[in-house]
């Protein structure tokens, strides 16, 4: 299962829902996660993990093609931290 299409097909097969309905549900989930992150900068899904927005500081970097030093601007990034339950499923 390496892309959304395969994921939707698998869920459709397991639940009996139409692929179109599965896709619509996933799109609604992602839209709502995005809204939550924009409004509060943190969003948790129990037994799955936590999405959080952090502010990265401006820093110096290097252009890999030229080797020239460049300034990388400060930016917000999304970080995902898996729950203990999810980590335990992969480590047992």
From TrEMBL:
Q: Which GO terms describe its molecular function?
A: DNA binding; structural constituent of chromatin
Family statement drawn from the similarity comment of this UniProt entry? Belongs to the bacterial histone-like protein family.
Q: Does the keyword DNA-binding apply?
A: yes
Q: Which UniProt keywords apply?
A: DNA condensation, DNA-binding
Q: Which GO terms describe its biological process?
A: chromosome condensation
**Domain of life (superkingdom):** Bacteria
Q: Answer whether the UniProt record assigns the keyword DNA-binding to this protein.
A: yes
Name-wise, this protein is: DNA-binding protein
Which CDD domains does this UniProt record tie to the protein?
HU
